[in-house]
Amino acid sequence: MEILPIPAESFKVGFIGAGKMAESIARGVVASGVLPPNRIFTAVHSNLNRRDVFESFGVSVFSNSEDVVKESDVVIFSVKPQVVKKAVMELRSKLSKNKILVSVAAGIKLKDLQEWSGQDRFIRVMPNTPAAVGEAASVMSLGTGATEEDGEIVAKLFGAVGKILKADEKMFDAVTGLSGSGPAYIFLAIEALADGGVAAGLPRELALSLASQTVLGAATMVSKTGKHPGVLKDDVTSPGGTTIAGVHELEKGSFRATLMNAVVAAAKRSKELSQN
Question: Which of 56, 152, 177, 193 has its CA 20 to 30 A from that of 120?
Answer without folding.
Answer: 177
